[in-house]
Specification:
Helices cover 47% and strands 5% of the residues. By secondary structure, it is mainly alpha-helical. It starts with 14 loop residues before the first helix and ends with a helix.
């Protein structure tokens, strides 16, 4: 008969899921300029410090948020152009010629068949009144571009690309905003939620919290800087994720992760 310890809490995630998240972080470090993560990446917070300035129109606000999101992602050298929602003409990723580094000042990316053309990115006007959704949607698009240009597939192969995209967005520093927008309550009054403004998550809320905790562990971000910006019901979960990672990092983390921490 198995004896249960009533005072031992259940881990947030199953071991296989936890292992995939850690392995995929290691993959992202190898594919997307781990030095940028170590030396330049910041934990992006939903504050005026990270998204400063006043705007006079919906499109101007979208442009301002887009420019800042691209900068924090380290993709300022990509041929990217924000266009109005009714202007974007192509939803397919064009063939690109890329340097070895895909992010940072040394990255060089051009559209193969037309070197002077741009990747047009539209946006959802309904998200302008929900800025975190706007930021997370832009980050998700940028992560998609990265993942599809990676020389190798993420752990688990092609079937795990959608989940890897969300993880890469957290890896780039957008974890707080991503976890705050991972789940949107669909009930209640009409003024409480705008379903047209919500992005589509592929990681679960718990998996996104864990991805945020991995970033904070690697970057030595104190939890006191994170907790005030998380939705209330996520704070205890985030603290538990940090605690679990702190206890188990030597058993779980690959060499690439440990080398960043040390």
């Amino acid at each position: 008969m198995k004896i249960l310890d009533l005072f031992t809490s259940k881990p947030l995630l199953e071991e296989g899921v936890q292992r995939w998240l850690v392995d995929t972080y290691s993959w992202a470090i190898e594919q997307f300029n781990g030095d940028l993560l170590k030396h330049e990446s910041k934990l992006v917070l939903p504050t005026n410090e990270f998204f400063p300035g006043r705007v006079s129109s919906v499109h101007e606000m979208a442009e301002r948020v887009f420019e800042q999101t691209v900068k924090y992602a380290g993709m300022q050298n990509w041929p990217l152009k924000l266009v109005a929602p009714n202007v974007a003409t192509n939803t397919q990723i064009p063939a690109l010629t890329c340097s070895r580094l895909l992010r940072g000042d040394s990255a060089h990316i051009v559209i193969t068949q037309n070197e002077g053309s741009m990747i047009e990115i539209g946006y959802n006007p309904a998200q302008v009144n929900q800025p975190q959704d706007l930021v997370s949607s832009f980050a998700q698009v940028l992560a998609t571009l990265l993942v599809y240009q990676a020389p190798t597939l993420p752990p688990g192969g092609k079937d795990n690309i959608p989940q890897a995209i969300d993880l890469v967005a957290c890896f780039m520093g957008f974890g707080v905003i991503f976890v705050n927008t991972a789940f949107q309550f669909k009930g209640g009054c009409g003024s409480c939620n705008n379903r047209f403004a919500n992005r589509q998550s592929t990681l679960t809320e718990l998996e996104t919290v864990y991805s945020l905790a991995l970033f904070c562990l690697l970057k030595s971000v104190d939890k006191s800087k994170v907790l005030p910006h998380l939705k209330g019901h996520l704070r205890s979960t985030f603290k538990k994720a940090l605690k679990e990672l702190g206890k188990e990092k030597e058993q779980l983390e690959p060499v690439a992760l440990l080398s960043l921490i040390n």
